[in-house]
Queue: 2 jobs
Job 1
Amino acid sequence: METDNLRNFLVLAQTGNMTRAAGRLNLTQPALSGQVKKLEQSLGVALFHRQGRGLALTQAGETFRRYAGDALDLLAAGQEAVGSLGRLASGTLAIGGGATSTTCLLPAIIGPFHSRHPGIRFTIREAPSRTIVEAVLAGDLDLGLVTLPLPAAAAGTRLLVEPWLVDELVLLVPPAHPLRRRRRFHWRDLHNQPLIAFESGSAVRQLLDRHLAEHAVAPALVMELRSIASITSMVAAGIGLGFVSRLADPSGQGLRCGDRPLTRQLALVERRDRSRSSALEAFRASLLAWKPPG
Amino acid sequence: METDNLRNFLVLAQTGNMTRAAGRLNLTQPALSGQVKKLEQSLGVALFHRQGRGLALTQAGETFRRYAGDALDLLAAGQEAVGSLGRLASGTLAIGGGATSTTCLLPAIIGPFHSRHPGIRFTIREAPSRTIVEAVLAGDLDLGLVTLPLPAAAAGTRLLVEPWLVDELVLLVPPAHPLRRRRRFHWRDLHNQPLIAFESGSAVRQLLDRHLAEHAVAPALVMELRSIASITSMVAAGIGLGFVSRLADPSGQGLRCGDRPLTRQLALVERRDRSRSSALEAFRASLLAWKPPG
DNA sequence: CCGAGCCATAAGTAATGCTTATCGCTCGAC
DNA sequence: GTCGAGCGATAAGCATTACTTATGGCTCGG
């Protein structure tokens, strides 16, 4: 059963004149006649009274007409819904990333995007890079914002990895601390200092641990936290020193590393075998075009 | 867009495996692949992620799946509804006739029919034969029960006329009347008798008038009524004599005409260009098979 | 009674859609 | 790491479908 046939049947039912209906449908009269005949055969009943001059719906035709009309409306609505996805008028995006990405970066990028495409809904998930990669591979996330390098297990060809921003970490110092007012710090400065860090497992923490080990510095870990805001609050309260992304320090009071840039490479990861939806394509472009302020 | 394609799309979406889905659908894998490709082209979006091994719905596919499923359900419901018409499980019949037909005949015939086909709904219209014929020609009634001969204007080829029962009129006599207890009457008996008759325009009345004129009998018309029940009541109350169908006199107290049978030919009339619905075909058969009791 | 209008049918052709055969790719096992 | 199995996409050939033009039969109105 061809949907075009159903549409033609509806037009014919409305006009009651096969020749005229065929003309309106850019068909010849025998073609429409054949379509109706086929439709009637597939239903097993006559849909029209053949009355020499003109056609009139039978009871069966009247009955079927309603169903066919509703079904076609539904299909048209489906096409419209699919089209609205393509026009970015609707759709959902599931994005995941670490604390820095979801807290400091995504809000600034999603804001303008949402203004331009208010129909797109976001689902944001904050988790360690490893978890994000797994979620992307499982198809739960459309896009992941993670720190390179990836865990070896996930680095297979199943992921599409696109380098993104280079994020620099800065050292937050409490107001009364001797290091305060300096522009840069050196690893030796951290000896025996109280340190507030992300909980282990996060990419930022791993980066920090690696540098501490390389420079043989052993600060006193006084606290492990999960969010950037709590770290800055703790530092401000004088509990200790803390590392956060430079992006999370808009006032610029954090100290950059004077030995070697303390940076990490952020990247976008997707499943290679997933074709991007229009919404994802557009948002990905927004991500890649974004530059940190200043 | 072919409905079979949509159905196949749904099966494929469910299995996620093209080869297996094609097998279940009695298709080869390339055929199904082509169908999906065509469907995607007509929608302008990819419905599946091609992931080397197996398929997974895209967001567009997930969206469209719901609409397509609902639309197919609707079409199936339409087919079912049309089928139920054919199986006499549903449908409507619009029947019209004169007072005798609708009051005395139809109830007895519709009763068993309705027991056998409780899904069929009747619309009964009582009106003079001329009005019934017009309603049949206008398509408002599926079937008319009328007295022959038809008005000349309606006797064209547009009507299909099927002779039915021969109905005999009998004379009802009040209990205290001298004619009471007789089995037959003669037209001369009616001289100066008070007569209760159907209102003019009805077929029964025309028949009566013709016979009265032929026999040059002039009874005193004391009342013109529209219903059989009111005539029998009036006669019983002693107002006068009255003619009704023998079918409306189950007790057999009415007097038959002793001069010449006072009968009329009833007939079924339909529009010739209307094909009969299953319900009409079945009911028509019930009508033609019916015999008056006794 | 004739002509116009309308639907059904027939014959021929163009296009659609299926089948078989094969390729490229991915994944899992050895 | 390599090989084999499984899966989907593609190509070529063919059968079927569905359209076109031409025509017949029928009804209705002048």
Job 2
Amino acid sequence: MDKGVGDSDSVRRQNRALVLEALRAAGSLARTQLAAATGLSHASITAITQAMIAQGVLADRPGPRGDQRAPGRPAVQIGFNRAAAYVVLVELEVNRARLSLVDYGGTLVDRIEAPLTPASFRELPAARMLVERIGQLRQRDPAETARLRRIAISVQGILDKSGSSLAWSPVPGLAGADLVTPLRDTFGVPVTLSKRGRLLAEGTRRLDPSLGDASIATVFLGSTVAMGLSAPGRWLGRGEEGATEFGHMNHVPNGALCRCGMRGCIEAYAADYGILRTAFSVPETTPPAAAIPAAEFDHLISRGMNGDRAATHGFNLAGRAIGYGLSRLLALFAPSHVVIVGPGTRAFALMRAEIDLALAGSLVGRISGLPQLRTLSDESEPVFKGLVAETLRQLDETEIAALPAIVP
Amino acid sequence: MDKGVGDSDSVRRQNRALVLEALRAAGSLARTQLAAATGLSHASITAITQAMIAQGVLADRPGPRGDQRAPGRPAVQIGFNRAAAYVVLVELEVNRARLSLVDYGGTLVDRIEAPLTPASFRELPAARMLVERIGQLRQRDPAETARLRRIAISVQGILDKSGSSLAWSPVPGLAGADLVTPLRDTFGVPVTLSKRGRLLAEGTRRLDPSLGDASIATVFLGSTVAMGLSAPGRWLGRGEEGATEFGHMNHVPNGALCRCGMRGCIEAYAADYGILRTAFSVPETTPPAAAIPAAEFDHLISRGMNGDRAATHGFNLAGRAIGYGLSRLLALFAPSHVVIVGPGTRAFALMRAEIDLALAGSLVGRISGLPQLRTLSDESEPVFKGLVAETLRQLDETEIAALPAIVP
DNA sequence: GCATTAATTTTACTGCTCGAAAAAACTGTT
DNA sequence: AACAGTTTTTTCGAGCAGTAAAATTAATGC
């Protein structure tokens, strides 16, 4: 029903969003620079910033007094009013939950970390746990949380159609439970679930300026294998991120048993448990270990580096699984860059040859050029950055840009 | 540089595009219905339609005089002024080229069909051939082609970055040549290349109302294997269709030799030549036959239907290749419907079991539900419909909606 | 103190939408 | 034939956001 009618309301929203977007990218800008960045006239920038300052969204930033050398009226920087809004960002991972309170300027205000075990969500359901922890943040930061506007949760797994719970997840006990409704009802703000893989991809682009307008695929290698896709200029919508389950793309029909219960998934060859299973010649159909201690995996890597046949065999099979997975990806979507992320990057040198070999067999790769391969060992920072960026952008677009014209 | 600034120009363009879109969907509408369909006020519809009628884009349609029973002022239908513009649509396939002259209302005005052989484009380069053929249309329909506004070409293969030629194509002699520039220079109108697979998917949705807002993947089975993706409400942009080469997604590492020169492509198992090669126990590494006569393939199908072991084996392998390909697709993009299209659908019953078996091993399929499988034997009609729809929509958005406010 | 320079704001005007009221174009009834 | 009833379409005036160009503001340099 609701078509994109263009009236003065939508024009205002559009141009305000443009201003906010430019400020998100730059941090703070003078009005003149803002006009140049958005393409709007100076007069419009004056009107828009005036309104937004009156609404407490933006604020003049005291200029640096000292180093004024240029003639002419000095430019006044405009930036976000950090206290305008706060968001709670939750990263749910297999072995920990991290809750961050972030202000409207994107600055971290407070943070809670909680370790998780496979039993955690059996004892205390995830939604309950989150309600408690966010309540804790509310007690610690009453002034800030009074202006809480949004809760965003990074999750791993397959979202169900409603987008309010996970249909499947590698995090034990997380699937099936409605995470959104209890939080929304308790705190009275919109709650969203985002796939960690995509956030990783978005965050990775933001952290590396040279990836500015590349289309990138990230491949997380660790206790799971997960992919995120990110194309420039366009945030993939809700429905579009439904199914990037690269780790559970089939590699070999009737192949090794995966944690997900299927057989032959890429993960069953390239996650830590898969590599260990191969290296120790454990039958492919043996149920995967619940968790691999980091030390054990590190030991396998050093064995591989030293040329141990069993170890290199494990990494070779992992590389082949990833390589053919990427080759198959290329047939559908050809990113300009592939970034390998996570603990498994330490073994990248052991897998590289097989990855390259598999990619060499891709028609699209041969014709359009192979994607650039890179590694990035820490995945936590980009995921957080991606979550901050996505959540604030959503807040900007849906609420801040949509504020009414004048406050009478 | 050019951001999406919202000013009165863009508002006009937006709302005019909304009107055109509603009319494209319905054919013709009364002003009141247009207001309801677009969400614009009656006053705005009056202003917009008045301007567009003055510009010769739309026209009042003589109402059906006879069956007026209702009281009140009779509604006047508004429709496209067919003579407002004409487009030439070209479908380049392996064995024929078809050129259609279509008016602004989407009605076919004239058509030229030309058979192609593998040697055709060696003797006469594709661009030259098209210039000649379109020139032929120009002679036959001088009045119409005087108002030619666009040339759109449906192609198979991988587009190069510029979008003006194919980096690779299954059509012999087509790759590498710039198709866009010579035509644009000769006829002075924009020329676009679109991937046949995607047009097929778009057209398929339009032809079957029950697919109205499904996300669909089409799989063409014939002398090649090709996929098209179509999601509702959003036309995939130029860059996004770059790489849907499903037929050349790897199925088996180092597998059967494909026409593209790679090994193990789905096509090498599921295109007609691949199935025949399997059925006749020709070694997988034997270079594929150039073209398979339809009769020969039909004969193989009937042998399969009668239970011939060699034949059913060929179709089984084809089904498995398609099934695992779809299963791998599901890990990245999960369409609600998969439509099998083309000559190969006649053998669908022989492949179905293996396809289902492979899909059953997909985690995403198990969790989010398997896509509905259908068949559609004729692919020509949906490709044409898709090409008409896409081309006229582009014309509407980029030129017609952008016409100036008043003609002084 | 005054010219010069560059950033903002003010002013005057444009174009588009919208709601409400008026006009138009029919049917049916008296 | 005039009039009432209905539904569609057009007209009118207000409101709002944008732009260009002029005016204003706040520094620097002589």
